[in-house]
Design a protein that fits this description.
Elements lengths: L3 H16 L4 H16 L3 H12 L6 H14 L2 H13 L5 H17 L2 H18 L4 H12 L1 H4 L4 H9 L5 H30 L9 H26 L5 H20 L7 H31 L2 H12 L3 H16 L4 H18 L4 H15 L7 H10 L3 H7 L1 H16 L2 H10 L1
Helix pairs in contact: 1-2, 2-14, 3-14, 4-13, 4-14, 5-6, 5-12, 6-7, 6-8, 6-11, 6-12, 7-8, 7-19, 8-11, 8-19, 8-20, 10-17, 11-18, 11-21, 11-22, 12-13, 14-17, 15-17, 16-17, 16-18, 17-18, 18-21
């Protein structure tokens, strides 16, 4: 028998706490505890589920990815990536926008974080673009949308969270599945930014000598090897995702402090502290989400949602559009990591029922929720970008429409053309 009151307590408590702006981890845990009291489930069971949530070998990759990203972000890699991408695409019309997008693609392959991307790449390029005659809204638009590539292109700790939430699917296959969609998103953003640049008459970049280009490339490639170690190690079967993250972390440490040497070794204390703060938030979120998710399963909410959606229509296209709209709406009001952990166990059975591969669903979900990072009212990347660009959200959202359209088109391609996601995993693993 369905316990409607239990479902109301679980979801109602969570929603009310979100409305009054309670931190998401506390909202999830409080809802789980309230439901446990109503169902007369021992509170120790809630604690056990929290521990189970973070007791996973795959999750050990997350602290290493966070630390590697912090080290490389602080050690001059951002500036070198910008210089390298300027060699590749800087001379076209609106070249700094193309540099911005390509730099985000490369930096995303190191940090795996959209916020880190905006904070480092954006802090350099947004003022530079404005100084060179680009409009503020255009500069911020390009920066925040291109930063979302970092969530899709591996390594991505959000993909690891999805892999764990989905019952332990292959992180390596998930990483590979994100490469082509991430590149496709980058190409789409480069096209739309070029069209706008031509229309507004933005300048071209300066000519670079062969000697300067060679020196810039060599300097940047040392940092970019971090992504090669991660992806190549997993694909080649040399490392697990966790082991590759640890090796990449060591490599990033050596390159930053003994090759680039832009910051002193004592700065490592600050890097470790920043990494620890981020990790504490992530693990607290995962633990509370697991307790919340256990009650979702206990109350059979995933089965109810599956039956409800399949009852609306048995047409695969209609269901996929409905689920995408649902995720887009949720992404506007909640952060990505908790949404992945809450919605994956609910929606994955629906996707499997209509024949979608879990790898494709994972990439589709992450890309979908990445769009939410650029949308009000809770778009963290949008807020950071506007803060750096010193402009209003209202102004930026209006000018973002062409970029939103591009991201949605890529999302639909990923949703309805499985080969975009599955080609590399099937070919290489």
């Amino acid at each position: 028998m369905i316990d409607h009151l239990g479902i109301l307590i679980l979801l109602g408590t969570f929603i009310i706490l979100l409305i009054i702006k309670t931190p998401i981890s506390f909202a999830l845990l409080t809802a789980a505890i309230a439901t446990a009291i109503y169902l007369e489930v021992p509170l120790m069971s809630v604690a056990v589920q929290m521990v189970k949530g973070i007791h996973s070998f795959s999750l050990m990759a997350i602290p290493f990815f966070i630390l590697a990203g912090e080290i490389m972000g602080a050690g001059g890699i951002s500036r070198r990536i910008i210089a390298f991408t300027n060699v590749l695409v800087g001379r076209v019309r609106g070249g700094l926008a193309q540099v911005n997008i390509l730099a985000s693609m490369f930096f995303g392959g190191i940090s795996g974080s959209a916020i880190a991307d905006v904070s480092s790449i954006g802090a350099m390029l947004i003022p530079m673009m404005v100084e060179n005659g680009y409009d503020e809204d255009y500069s911020v638009d390009v920066t925040i949308t291109s930063a979302c590539q970092g969530i899709i292109i591996p390594p991505s700790h959000n993909m690891i969270i999805f892999a764990v939430s989905a019952g332990g699917i292959s992180v390596g296959r998930l990483f590979l599945g994100g490469i082509l969609p991430g590149i496709l998103l980058g190409v789409g953003l480069m096209i739309v930014s070029y069209i706008i640049a031509v229309k507004r008459g933005y300048p071209k970049g300066k000519k670079i000598t062969k000697k300067e280009a060679w020196q810039t490339t060599v300097s940047a490639l040392l940092g970019l090897m971090t992504a090669v170690i991660i992806i190549g190690g997993v694909i080649g079967g040399v490392f697990t995702a966790t082991e590759s993250a640890a090796v990449a972390c060591l490599y990033a440490f050596i390159i930053t402090f003994f090759v680039y040497r832009e910051i002193p070794l004592r700065h490592m204390n600050i890097i470790l502290m920043n990494s620890l703060k981020t990790l504490a938030m992530v693990l607290a979120l995962i633990a509370s989400c697991n307790a919340f998710g256990w009650f979702l399963a206990y109350l059979r909410i995933p089965a109810l949602v599956t039956n409800f959606l399949l009852g609306i229509s048995d047409n695969k296209i209609v269901l996929l559009l409905l689920i995408n709209l649902l995720l887009l709406a949720l992404g506007c009001v909640m952060d990505m990591a908790p949404l992945i952990m809450i919605t994956t166990p609910i929606l994955l059975p629906v996707m499997e029922a209509i024949g979608m591969d879990p790898i494709q669903f994972g990439v589709m979900m992450v890309l979908n929720l990445a769009i939410g990072l650029c949308t009000p009212p809770v778009g963290a990347v949008l807020f950071v970008g506007c803060s750096i660009g010193k402009t209003s959200i209202e102004k930026i959202v209006k000018s973002l429409i062409p970029f939103y359209a591009t991201m949605v088109i890529v999302l639909l391609l990923v949703t309805f053309i499985p080969e975009i996601v599955l080609f590399l995993p099937n070919l290489l693993m």
